[in-house]
Amino acid sequence: MHLFDAAAEIGGQFNMAKRIPGKEEFYETLRYFGKMIEKNGVNLHLNTRVDAGFLIQQQFREVVLATGISPRKPQIEGINHPKVLSYIDVLLHRQPVGKKVAVIGAGGIGFDVSIFLTDEGTTGESDQQRISDYREEWGIDTSYQHRGGLTQPKKEHAPRELWMLQRSKGKVGDRLGKTTGWAHRLTLKNRGVRMWSEVNYVKIDDAGLHITLKGQPQVLEVDNIIICAGQYPLRELQEPLTQAGIKVHLIGGAKEAGELDAKRAIEEGWALTGMRDED
Ligand SMILES: Cc1cc2nc3c(=O)[nH]c(=O)nc-3n(C[C@H](O)[C@H](O)[C@H](O)COP(=O)(O)OP(=O)(O)OC[C@H]3O[C@@H](n4cnc5c(N)ncnc54)[C@H](O)[C@@H]3O)c2cc1C
């Protein structure tokens, strides 16, 4: 069994997810899968981008395409302006981000990026510190000195001024998980993030992001515009491999790009493990 990845480490998008405050557990997920790769004797080839020709030449009988996604770039005048960054530029390539930011797209990744950019920066500190920060943020009194075990939540000082924007109608973040969406919205609200829906993007230039909000034109004078506007499946290898008679299995983002759906990606990979005996 051979596993090829173009990147220098395993994990794909999890390497972005793990940097989001509150998602540090993904470091452990990656450690676990790293160990399993070792334990099961998988031949891991990092820094190895493969193409169809290589896979055909190597005479693989079956190929699992877990090549993930490519981010959607919306058609806005000025989209190639240097102020514009993708969430991948920010989270993976660690590009610097200014103090005033507009985030285009309010799905799961748009929320994660907004939380990341408005966090005071306790990620990387000890678990104990994070727990104590969390309690202060939500006003949890573990000593039960106050009624209901609740105190006044501590107002966070966000290091950036941020706008979260979506084109569609309705509440921003409406499609987030029922049990977690309200908490993410409240966190961002407490950090002063403005969440606007029914936004039409007009253009991007040196002045910032030109929009109309419910029909009213305005300019957001921001340093950066971060694009979190969805994803497409990345499956360019599927056709040439299938045509060469190789059995191809699509899993994860390559099968269906659905933003925060690692569970499905892992389940689909697991469902294929019956293949193992043939190798
Ligand atoms: C900020 C962020 C937060 C997230 N949070 C969550 C969350 O809380 N819960 C959740 O369930 N999901 C979350 N996700 C989504 C989750 O990370 C993805 O669903 C999951 O990683 C999809 O796995 P995948 O295997 O399909 O592809 P990916 O993780 O996209 O990995 C694809 C891999 O394929 C490699 N590759 C591509 N083409 C080639 C090639 N030709 N040759 C070699 N290698 C190649 C890439 O280098 C990459 O490593 C988050 C994603 C992001 C960006």
Describe the model.
- The chain is an alpha/beta fold and 279 residues long.
- The protein folds into three domains: 2-70 and 232-278, NAD(P)-binding Rossmann-like Domain (Rossmann fold), CATH 3.40.50; 73-120 and 157-227, FAD/NAD(P)-binding domain (3-Layer(bba) Sandwich); 122-155, no CATH class.
- The chain contains nine helices and 14 strands.
- The protein has helices at 14-17, 25-39, 52-57, 87-91, 108-118, 127-138, 181-190, 238-243, 262-271; strands spanning 2-4, 43-45, 62-65, 69-71, 84-86, 100-104, 161-165, 194-196, 199-205, 208-213, 216-220, 224-227, 231-233, 247-250.
- The strands form five sheets. Strands 5-12-6-7-8 form a five-stranded parallel sheet. The chain has a three-stranded antiparallel sheet with strand order 9-10-11, with no helix packed on it. The protein has a two-stranded parallel sheet with strand order 1-2.
- β7, α7 (181-190) and β8 (194-196) form a beta-alpha-beta unit.
- α5 (108-118) packs parallel to α7.
- The chain starts with a strand and ends in an 8-residue tail after the last helix.
- It binds flavin-adenine dinucleotide.
- The site of flavin-adenine dinucleotide has 28 residues, from α1, α5 and α9.
- Flavin-adenine dinucleotide binds at residues 4-7, 12-14, 16-17, 20, 23, 49-50, 66-69, 91, 109, 112, 252-254, 260-263, 265.
